[in-house]
Each structure stands twice: as C-alpha cells, then as structure tokens.
# Entry
Amino acid sequence: MTVCRAAALLVTFAAIALGVVFMRGEQTRTAARVHQLQVAKDRLRQEAWDLQMEIARLKTPDLIRERVERWQLNVLAPCPGPGWRAETGMADAR
# Structure
C-alpha cells in the first residue's frame, strides 16, 4: 500500500468517524426534544382535563341558578319560534 492510499484511507475513516459523532449528537438532541415535547403534551393534557372538570362544575344547575340570581339576569324560558309545531314538539323542516 502506498503512502497516498494510506493517507486517503485515513482521511476516509476520519470523515466517517466525524459523521458518526455528528449523527450521534443529532440523535441525542432529537431524543431530548422528543422528551420535552412529551412532557409538554402530558402537562397540556392534564390542563385540558382540569379545564373540562371546571366547565362541568360550572354547568351544574345549582351554580347556573346561583349566577343568574347573583347577576340579576332576566332569564326567560325558551319559547317556540316561527315554524314550531306543538303536536310534534319540533320545528318545520323549512
């Protein structure tokens, strides 16, 4: 093997080694980012669950009644509009 071939082989192996090191670094950074996103997803899922529970609590009839009284709202029962048919309890399909 000539010196030129040995040098070319050495440069090729060095380039491959640098490529492997670079790819491992990228893999590590990507894994860390995936972990961060999973933690954020879990946190957001918990926050969404908490908000759904709060909405469900606020929709209870007792709390709605209390807010209507506290804010002195003039809430009327819904009345049938045009096209309402009393015999079926449904609106016309017009």
Notes: The chain is about 70% helix and 5% strand. The chain has one domain: 3-72. The mean pLDDT is 86. The beta strands are 84-85, 90-91.
